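User: Good morning. I'm curious how 2-acetamido-2-deoxy-beta-D-glucopyranose would be positioned relative to this chain. Could you predict the structure with it bound?
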Amino acid sequence: MKSVLVLAVLLQVFVSNTDCYNYKDVVQKSLLFYEAQRSGKLPSDQRVTWRKDSALNDKGANGEDLTGGYYDAGDFVKFGFQMSFTATILAWGLLDHEKGYEAADSLEEGRKALKWALDYFLKAHVSENVFYAQAGSGVLDHNYWGRPEDMTEARPTFMINTTNPGSDLAAETAAAMAASYLVFKEVNATYANILLTHAKQLYSFAYKYRGKYTDAFDDIRCCYNSSGYEDELVWGAAWLYRATGDKTYLTYVDTEYTNIQYYIGFSWDQKAGGADVLLAKLTGESKYLTKMKNYCDQIINSQQRTPKGLIFISQWGSLSNTAYVMQICLETAALGVNADTYRAEAKKQINYMLGDTGFSYVVGFGTNYPTHCHHRAASCPNAPATCDWTQYSTTDANPHVLTGALVGGPGANDDYTDVRSDYVHNEVATYYNAGFQSVLAALIELGYSD
Ligand SMILES: *[C@@H]1O[C@H](CO)[C@@H](O)[C@H](O)[C@H]1NC(C)=O
Ligand SMILES: *[C@@H]1O[C@H](CO)[C@@H](O)[C@H](O)[C@H]1NC(C)=O
Ligand SMILES: *[C@@H]1O[C@H](CO)[C@@H](O)[C@H](O)[C@H]1NC(C)=O
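Assistant: Good morning! Here's the predicted structure, ligand included:
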């Protein structure tokens, strides 16, 4: 009797440890999250129908149409730097893991999610050296709780230009458009060529007129500070080199590489890791590959972990930061470095996010998932019911399921509480999902999905 019990317990442990998740389903859901973040006039094929048209008067200083694009997180600001990084990452995944997207039956939706950002960048890039960096004020916007459809707050827009440049922002957007050129080249060459023209212009704007976009205008400092632009100049040049084959961009890489001041993996602010693995692939130079191998080995062997095994990089957005690091290590694995180890680790980290601890950090996936994520739109009942700070404070679950959103995630001790007020652990963001989604596409391509 006892041994049967032991066997049963063992069996259960065995089963839960080899649990497979339907990564394809998660990719499909993640793409729904991007729909929920759409600003502007929604298309007729919008599937997340509890969201409606919003911010239809977003305009530049000279009346330029700046509608469209994505709301950043649980708020309604269109932060250009985070949006462009999101686009670069989505494009990278679609380009190098097209088979993963195809297997998830999500290639077309994936391209649509990317195009939604690109079409906005095309509007925001009003002339060669003028690019709108932001629509909506972080300072004003964060005083409001309610639906995006009902916003009455002022929506100022902010630009970078030759007197107030933003090399980080311009180079990241150049990277997004160069990578997207490759995604769309065979889908629509006309569109792809438009993207490439803008990519080249934005890169040369970034390179010639130096500065951090967070020094260009005040409003952004409420919310995101950029640590430097040298990494984006390298990353942007790497993508333009990949898109054009023009070796001039490699000389930019060499010039700027030594000026990179920080090396902390890969995130909306830190591009060096991504640039290294991309350059390793494009140039075959061993210095890049060696750097990546050392970095991934260090992350896997020595980085802090939570008691339940999550590689822990930061308190704020812990899961997304881990996913980004797994993304660059998977790209390193694809170049033949420690492939089994890096892939097994990536799978383990993703499985932590999807339910290995008994909780799924992806809204709407699994049976036990966040029901109170910090997201204004999802927290509001359908109009015409009132939605304001009372709704923020209620302990009721969000009336709308924000399907596919990866929440910030646990703290260093696997600690996490599903409350709306905890934006550090329970907010969502378009850039949280991008790396995560790309890792899933890579794992699907490897045949790891259920
Ligand atoms: C250049 O950008 C700065 C910062 O956004 C802005 O204050 C200034 O008005 C812009 N200059 C022109 C000529 O538009
Ligand atoms: C290709 O892109 C161009 C430029 O955006 C657009 O006008 C055209 O309608 C697109 N063609 C197709 C078949 O989607
Ligand atoms: C950004 O930097 C400014 C000073 O340069 C500081 O006042 C602000 O708190 C910082 N914001 C964030 C979100 O770190």
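Residues 1-18 have pLDDT under 50 and may be disordered. Residues 189-208 form the longest helix (20 residues).
Let me know if you'd like a different ligand tried.
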